[in-house]
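Thread: quick sanity check before group meeting

JM: Hey all, I'm pulling together slides for Thursday and realized we never actually wrote out the predicted structure for the chain we discussed last week. Dropping the sequence here so it's in one place. If anyone has concerns about the input, flag it before I start.
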Amino acid sequence: MKEYTTGKLRNIGLVGHGSEGKTTLAEAMLYSAGAIDRMGKVEDGNTVTDFDQEEINRGISISAALAPVEWADYKINVIDIPGYFDMIGELSGAMRAVEGAVIVVGSVSDVPVGAEKAWSNCDKHGISRMFFVNGMDKENANFDKIVSQLKDKFGTAVVPVQLPIKEGHEFKGYVNLLSEKAYEFAKGADKEIPVPASMASRVSEIRESIIEAAASADEALMNKYFEEGTLSVEEILKGLEEGIKDGSVAPVVCGSAVNNLNVRAFMDAVINFIPSPDKADAKAVTLLKDDSKVEVMADDGQKLVALVYKTFADNFVGKINYFKILSGKLTPDLDILNANTGKHEKLNHIYTMQGKTQIELKAMHAGDIGALAKLANTNTGDTLCDASFPVKCDPIEFPEPVISFAVTAQEQGEEDKVFAGLYRLAEEDPSFKVKKSTETSDTLISGQGDQHVGIIISKLENKFKVKAVLSDPQVAYRETIRKTVSAQGRHKKQSGGHGQFGDVWIEFSPIQDGSAEFEFVDRVVGGVVPKNFIPAVEKGLRECINKGVLAGYPVVNLRCALYDGSYHSVDSSEMAFKTAAHLAFKKGCAEANPVLLEPIYKAEVRIPDEYMGDIIGDANRRRGRIMGMNPVGGGLQEVVFEVPQSEMFKYATDLRSMTGARGSFKMTFERYEEVPGNIAQKVIAEAKSRLVEDED
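JM (edit): ok, ran it. Output follows.
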């Protein structure tokens, strides 16, 4: 593969709903450009961009894969981005590497929610977009219906620039609405034909709307359009280019990826419509020396700045870091600094990746996308820069996990292997987290959904040869008391050898205002408990609060006042008084109306207006309390409710089902509240059963 300068580069992400044909479109582009000898099929597991074993096994894209295509003396860096919602983390990094997105939609069914999410992500990242209506050779394909639905959802920005030519159910060719020329599909090159007479009026009508869209994006063109009533093809392209760059125009093309129909014209459209990196807006980076902001452009003359947008762990070649050059030219002899770690990285080779195949390059220019292997200290989100220009890019915003599971090794003794593998996979996928719960001692893995976590566990088995078992996380319950009682703890042992004696009276009372989780008060007068033994009493009580009398959960909001006791001049010891404190605690707390507390979270759920009733009803079924409903714009509402954590473990899956994947939520801890009696009985019974199993 030859070197391509910045103006000859186009970087696109193929995005949209799962199973709409993104991977097949990438395959057709590679085949049409002569990069591969034959087109693979997703169902056969032999496509270029679905090369991971998990992708082959499941028949879906899991990882954002790079596939550069050389076409018409341009290089189109194609990133095939998974469309399944559990893989949303793959989109976060990839969208930082491209100037444009191609939203792939089917030609038969209605426009899916994945297209809506893709559009929103284009807005979020400020990148251009166009639509590819796929499957035009299907019997029930309806281009006009899809375009109409796209306009309903996304407004006048949607502008078709092609029309399909169909004879019966056969997809024969297309009309280029800019040039008003028609083409029939043929081997080698499409054959120009007259515009079908039956389509002439539609072509004229839609072309007029294209001219209006182009004119409205540029003031000079608008004036000319008002004066002359039309624009040249070059002027239309110029206007569309401006509109596409600012997001006010989204061209629509058509084709069939699986049968490689109109893919060549689609690649021409990508070159014509998607801006090259040097035409994109400057990117702000932070100077390490003083934390000030400066801007960099896709220009070979500037110092090198590159963002690592993805990391892939390969069993054979090790770690591969994918990067986007924001400025400067990359050559292997450069002194490269990782601005995040402060360490220098040695570059032996520079690659681009065609799926899993490495293609070595001598140099890469500003705006290009490539890969580096075996960098010891570099991970996703890191900035690689010229050592003489230490700067850091803004971090990539990955979605926070929405579902968690406790994880253990299936085979005893393999815990270290399991956890080491999970941490390696977390390096590869920042939308997946591994952490040790300080509350329950569970090791928790968290991801974007059931499928995401399931894929991680399968990867663990395939890549690291160990199996893990998942279970629901334990809820971090608490215990407290509701009334004040006094209890005696008397420890006496005098059978053989040195005796033991400790005697205490302690008042146990609830801390009603929540000002402290535990408070020890010394009210001893007259030396009934010698001062040197009082710290042992406090220590014994602090040990006890880790396991309450109801179900062994930590005790909170407890005040313990030592006010009386007795001692033996010979047999008393610190250990004896600590043991006496244990006895007083068990007796006192058992008599002080102990209750179970559960963590309450605030849930903030964003959904389209039409799902309000379903969400509120579901929240009530989860013992939730509605705190407010707020319009947030764009036809969305935010429902805020407080709810026990125990009711929310599967909420991500349920919300996706209730809203057709249009809903999103976040949760934050609020406080602890008493568990209702009937539920508390079940929790206590389960906890006691677990304690018995642990003892066995």
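AS: nice. The mean pLDDT is 94. DSSP finds 16 helices and 35 strands in the chain.
JM: adding both to the slides.
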